[in-house]
Amino acid sequence: MPAVTITTTSPLPMATIGTAYSQTFAAVGGVGGYTWQATGAPAWLTLSSAGVLSGVPPATATTASFTVKVTDSANASASGSFTVPVTLTIITTSPLPPATVTQPYSQTLTAGGGTGGYLWSATGLPGG
Fold first, then answer.
1. Model confidence pLDDT, tens digit, residues 9-36
2. Distance (Å, rounded) from C-alpha 122 to C-alpha 90?
3. What's the predicted TM-score (pTM) here?
4. Domain that residue 30 falls in
5. Which whole-number Å values give the CA distances from 30 to 5, 7, 53, 73, 102, in the listed order?
6. Residue at 57 is within a domain
7. Which of 48, 81, 89, 103 lies at a 20 to 30 A Cα distance from 73?
């Protein structure tokens, strides 16, 4: 019987801040009935014993790096290092508060993820 091997590759698909994330791990070989464990994953990510990685990245999330281990029913195992990139999102919700004619308008936008030091730009703004 061939050794158990994790067939899922890293990096895993991107996660988006505030959006539910799910990714199923796969393995081959060994003696069926796999059990999965993750070590070092951030608190927002959990790995079920069936190999389903899930969670919702918070506004402060950055790329998650962790180790995954699969164990077959004969107690043979394999492990690998994985990452889940987290995409930056604008946290401020739309629509923005209304403006009053002839009054100055100001609204601070917030973003999450990435490494901070954001550079903002906008297109399609009306004059003024």
1. 999 999 988 889 999 999 999 998 999 9
2. 12
3. 0.73
4. 5-87
5. 8, 13, 21, 8, 72
6. yes
7. 81
